[in-house]
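User: Please predict the structure of the protein below. I'd like the answer in structure-token form so I can feed it into my own downstream comparison script.

Assistant: Understood. Taking the following sequence of 312 residues as input:
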Amino acid sequence: MNQEKPFHPLSGWLPLLCVIALFIAGPGTIIWAATHEIIPALFAGIILMPVAVISCFGFMAVAPNDSRVLLLFGEYKGSAKQAGFYWVNPFYTKKKLSLRVRNFETGSTATPDKKNELGHVVSKGGRTASKPSKVNDRDGNPIDISAVVVWKVVDTAEALFRVDDYENFVEVQSEAALRILASRHPYDSEDSEVSLRGNAVEVCQQLQSDIQERLDQAGVEVIEARISHLAYSPEIAAAMLQRQQAQAVVAARTLIVEGAVGMVDMALAHLKRDGVVELDEDRKATMVSNLLVVLCSGGHTQPVVNTGTLYS
């Protein structure tokens, strides 16, 4: 298993001066040796030219939050992450790998650059629009769900040598983790059970942990994972909306009745404590009935004035 090894390359400014000197010294030596007919110096001048050309392949520039993975005939030598201008062995293969923070939305696919026969890019690649994944939640209800994953490479050796295509690996594993997470929880829950809609923070933390567990072997760190779209599938959305409305109405009525009963009890207690009026059981029942109608009614009630007594 290849673990990342830090590589500290030589600054490129002094080698740059040396290469420039070789380019100047090579032709100069050849001209001087040919003029004076000194054969060893002539060969030395001829050798200096290819040495100068080959040395040019050792220069590399590393941008901030970028890296170069160095290989020598297939053998991993290390990773240079420090920004700057450097010179390394010209025979090193220098693979560029970005360390910048990246993000994508599940359900979208990346399209590569289109090139012509000469290798020139004729059409820049991009990313298709996100399409929510259709999965079944724990209760078997079809839902549409997608998530935004923010990630970056932290181990260049594992990202390049342990998986075939680390970017595609991140996308596929994130999609798989999201589908499994959605199947473990219900879309909505009436009790304290964790649900996709009611416990967004806990679900997102669990999603980030699940994705990170899958991407550890690719040298990738998941910075954040957030659900960006969550809804019932269109074929059951109308029925589920009616169920939610019914549940909301029942919950509201329950709260109203509980409050009304408390107010009636408080009114009877005040009347008895202050001695405002003495009520027998029949009058209490009538008063309770009238108050409950007033407090629990969905519309405005019309008062009826009784000019007689309760029994006539």
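That's the full token string. The CA atoms of residues 27 and 161 lie 43 Å apart.
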